[in-house]
Design a protein that fits this description.
Elements lengths: L2 E8 L4 H13 L7 H7 L5 E7 L5 E6 L4 E5 L3 E8 L2 H23 L17 E7 L4 H10 L4 E6 L4 E5 L2 E5 L5 H39 L4 E2 L3 H34 L1 H4 L3 H70 L4 E6 L5 E7 L4 H28 L2 E2 L7
Helix pairs in contact: 5-6, 5-8, 6-8, 8-9
Length: 403
């Protein structure tokens, strides 16, 4: 049996970036990178032909020498296509080519764009598979999903043939649609699958950040000396939540953009209706997740404010302690300096004759060093005692108490 396999990924992009990719792929040119850099990043990507298409969604379509087609859209959707007789083997091949060749090239080209914060150690990359097959039985369709370890969620019948849809795999079978209609169907199926995966990844990140905030807010007890580290962690979490809140807004724009063109690009009435239901579901999930990000931002802001107040109060206490120590040390120094002056006592008779003479000498240099060192040691001891009393052994309360 012959198959047409498409493996795709999606990352928010724009027309400007698409044109940059086209110049790099077609002419080894870039406004930011040298020709040598681009050629090094393109190693292993050998292009036989490439064209820039101007439509509602501008795109780059390229044919590579390994019988793989590359379809890149301005909204960030990327598809690799290949004809195959062994769909599992070639699906893995396209996955690896997308990751090690196309993915590396795009990562380097985006090197001067915004860097996505690494909130988790897991690699959250959305990838999907669309397979087109002719003259397939239901048993053969089920075998495809079983071998790719993906359950079937929805089965859609068209005027001829239909579509089986899973979480990351969709199969178009026995269709008589033309090449352009199939292309748009594949694009929409891939976008819907990848967008849902991206929402799932965003939810995972939101939960991770929320738990990190909770860990700080209700951290049982810690020393004042740990506050700077706690404050820095809270500020990092706050920054990450703001980033992903903005990313959620961006995702919503791209979803709305796609939704506007369903009727125009999906000719089959049944399939258009199916995609409208998909996009209504995705829109509802997107709005819910966006509200969660808003709550997470407020949660982070309150936590940072509480830590800042506690941190400022700690600094004020330490400053007052140091002021007291300075005052005490100043008084001791003045008294010690006063004792350094020598004195002379002279006794005369009534006739003015010298009767006795007593000289009280100031401290010798040895005494000065000896007692000076003692004073210094005592002052240091007092300083440490004050520091320990007001800093190290004094515990901070929870930043936010539970009601």
């Amino acid at each position: 049996m012959k198959y047409r396999i498409y493996v795709g990924t999606w990352s928010i992009s724009s027309t400007i970036q698409l044109k940059e990719y086209y110049q790099a792929f077609a002419y080894d040119k870039s406004s930011y990178f040298s020709k040598e850099e681009i050629q090094a990043w393109k190693k292993g990507i050998n292009i036989d032909s490439i064209v820039y298409n101007t439509q509602a969604f501008n795109s780059i379509y390229a044919v590579l020498d390994n019988q793989v087609t590359l379809d890149m859209l301005e909204d960030g959707l990327i598809l690799l296509g290949k004809s195959s007789e062994d769909f599992k083997k070639d699906t893995e091949y396209l996955y690896q080519f997308l990751k090690t060749q196309i993915g590396v090239f795009l990562h380097n080209m985006r090197g001067r764009d915004i860097t996505v914060p690494q909130v988790t150690t897991e690699e959250l990359v959305s990838q999907g598979v669309i397979i087109e097959v002719k003259r397939a039985t239901k048993k053969q369709l089920q075998d495809i999903f079983d071998r790719l370890d993906c359950p079937v969620y929805k089965k859609v019948s068209l005027e001829k043939g239909g579509v089986w849809i899973g979480e990351r795999v969709a199969v178009i079978y026995n269709s008589v649609l033309g090449k352009e209609d199939i292309t748009e169907m594949v694009r929409y199926l891939m976008f819907a699958r990848l967008y849902e995966q991206e929402l799932k990844n965003m939810l995972y990140v939101q939960r991770t950040l929320w738990n990190q905030i909770e860990g700080i807010r209700y951290q049982r007890l810690y020393k004042y000396s740990e506050l700077p580290d706690v404050r820095d962690r809270a500020l990092t979490i706050q920054s990450n939540t703001n980033f992903y809140y903005g990313r959620s807004q961006q995702m919503n724009h791209f979803l709305s953009w796609r939704e506007e063109y369903i009727d125009e690009y999906l000719k089959d009435h049944i399939l258009s209706t199916t995609f409208w239901s998909f996009f209504r579901s995705l829109t509802s999930t997107q709005k819910y997740l966006h509200e969660l990000w808003g709550m997470t931002i407020r949660h982070a802001d309150v936590t940072v404010e509480a830590i800042s107040l506690l941190y400022g109060d700690t600094h004020q206490r330490e400053l007052q302690t140091l002021q007291r120590l300075f005052l005490v040390s100043t008084v001791i120094s003045v008294l010690s300096l006063g004792a350094l002056a020598g004195s002379k006592m002279v006794t005369y008779t009534k006739d003015g004759e010298l009767l006795s003479q007593t000289v009280v000498a100031s401290w010798s240099i040895d005494s000065f060093v000896f007692y000076g060192l003692i004073t210094l040691v005592i002052a240091l001891l007092f300083y440490l005692l004050f520091y320990i009393a007001f800093g190290t052994f004094r515990k901070a309360k929870r930043i936010i108490r539970k009601k």
